[in-house]
Design brief:
Number of domains: 2
Largest sheet: 8 strands, mixed
Shape: globular
Number of strands: 13
Distance between the termini: 47 Å
Radius of gyration: 24 Å
Structural class: alpha/beta
Mean pLDDT: 90
Helix content: 40-55%
Number of helices: 19
Strand content: 5-15%
């Protein structure tokens, strides 16, 4: 593009972004995810002259809400409402904010010139709209880059922008595969913000406008990770408050919980009908396979059907570890190819694996396989729905519960400030628990059992085997109780973490 085309492009973007923001975020600025408060704090620090936190890399599964978060932050900046009160001194002119999606057709010609669309766009924005080079920029501007994974040089471009000026606040978003290309130099400068599917807390805030008592999620984490039993009465109080508010708003608790698990794991499915939601999710999975996986591995187009078949097999299998050999034999796909595909699917965060606890000797003397889970049970529900599994059995419900808890624990292990690793218990089926959290520094092991109508037998046995200080049972309890080293947590409140 020539300079005039760039200028027209930016002017169009500046005019279009407020419309996009209004259409995508609605009128209630505070029906937002927890990450918004961190981004607002970083933006506020930048406006106050603290430039340490001016490069944010936000990545996650497609449909996780990255674009919406950028537009919500745009709303906050242009209204001066970074926090609860409007601050006129923090109001940012729309001309000082640019929102660009790298997958836009107008930017594709830059690829042919072997240039970085991200870097070229930021350079031209400074020159054509603000009349200055990046290096001489004397005003604070905000640059929001979406779908950055389509620029193979995005990490180098981000580093170049960061090093050229302290007056650009840059947020770069993209698929989970993007994080694989975060080089060491850029990683040192950037704040990484991985995004995960909605927690039940976020679902209730966004859909039902129901807020828990402050710090409920943090107290749950302290109870689960640190055995801080002093938090139990406060969490129980928050539970009752949530249930009361649901009832007052005419919401059926069981229906809301079921809807969250089967339909509400991703923000782009709210609100919508089951069939529309599931069609969107299947379309999203197809885009991950066709667009994101080639960025992870050089799959040939003829491999795509095999990838889809493996995804379908993961959704249809019963609970338990997955034998790659058996899967390869069943689908008539080479074992090495199955392994490569599963690893690539993990990198997109469509699925994740849980490994067997390494300090346990397998009872059958054989090497144990990994267990695989979808990042949210909503994805599992969508695939099974289109595979004809429309009737929910107790076994199906238990499987969804296990996926929900697995996803919560996986997120917990990647949350800032936690150092735990997630495993499953590979001992005999009658005595094993579903999950094990281990602190790699202290070696402490926390056994966790999940399911409908669960008793204490398995977790009690695991506490003895692993010499644990305590264990956790997640089931359909009415409240949190603690007895004989065992913490019993209601399933739904566990999903508030």
């Amino acid at each position: 593009m020539n300079n005039m085309e760039w200028k027209e492009y930016f002017q169009d973007r500046i005019k279009a972004t407020p419309i996009l923001a209004k259409g995508n975020t609605g009128n209630n600025i505070f029906k937002e995810r927890a990450i918004m408060f961190r981004l607002s704090r970083f933006a506020n620090d930048f406006l106050m002259g603290n430039t340490d936190s001016r490069l944010i890399v936000m990545y996650g599964l497609r449909g996780i809400g990255k674009s919406t978060i950028l537009l919500q932050l745009y709303n906050r900046l242009t209204t001066g409402k970074l926090f609860r009160e409007v601050d006129e001194t923090k109001k940012v002119s729309p001309e000082n904010i640019i929102y660009i999606s790298i997958d836009q057709t107008l930017l594709q010609s830059i690829f042919q010139e072997s240039k970085s669309p991200l870097l070229e766009a930021v350079k031209k924005f400074c020159e054509e709209i603000h009349g200055q080079t990046i290096e001489k920029l004397d005003k604070k501007i905000f640059v929001f880059i979406d779908e950055a994974q389509f620029d193979p040089n995005w990490a180098v471009a981000a580093k170049t922008i960061y090093d050229s000026t302290k007056n650009i606040f840059l947020i770069i978003t993209g698929s989970s595969a993007m994080a694989l290309h975060l080089n060491t130099d850029t990683a040192r400068r950037a704040i990484k913000e991985p995004l995960f599917p909605l927690s039940f807390l976020e679902y209730n805030v966004i859909k039902n406008n129901i807020f828990p008592i402050q710090n409920t999620s943090d107290k749950l984490k302290r109870l689960v990770l640190q055995n801080d039993i002093t938090t139990a009465p406060e969490i129980n109080k928050s539970m009752q408050s949530i249930l009361t508010e649901m009832k007052n708003k005419g919401k059926n608790f069981e229906s809301e919980l079921n809807e969250y698990i089967t339909l509400g794991g991703l923000p782009n499915s709210l609100p919508s009908t089951k069939e529309i939601t599931y069609r969107r999710l299947i379309d999203m999975i197809n885009r991950i396979v066709n667009q994101d996986l080639p960025l992870v591995d050089n799959f040939e187009s003829k491999t795509i059907p095999d990838i889809i078949r493996i995804v379908g097999s993961l959704a249809s299998k019963p609970q338990g570890e997955l034998s790659q050999n058996k899967l390869a034999q069943h689908l008539s796909i080479p074992v090495a190819k199955v392994k490569t595909i599963l690893e690539a699917l993990e990198k997109t965060q469509l699925i994740f694996s849980v490994k067997p606890f390494p300090d346990t000797k397998p009872v059958d003397g054989l090497s144990k396989q990994f267990k695989y889970y979808f990042m949210t049970p909503t994805l599992l529900s969508a695939i099974r729905f289109f595979n004809g599994k429309t009737i929910a059995s107790p076994q199906e419900e238990s499987n969804l519960w296990e996926h929900a808890v697995a996803g919560t624990l996986y997120k917990l292990c990647y949350t800032t400030g936690t150092i735990y690793n997630l495993f499953y218990d590979p001992t005999t089926k009658d005595s094993c628990v579903d999950f094990i959290l281990q602190n790699p520094l202290s070696g402490e092991v926390i056994p966790i059992e999940v399911g409908l109508n669960k008793d204490n037998i398995q977790v009690k046995d695991a506490i003895e085997r692993y010499k644990s200080r305590y264990g956790i049972v997640v089931s359909n309890f009415d409240e949190i109780t603690i007895r004989d080293k065992i913490i019993k947590i209601p399933f739904w409140i566990f999903l508030y973490m």
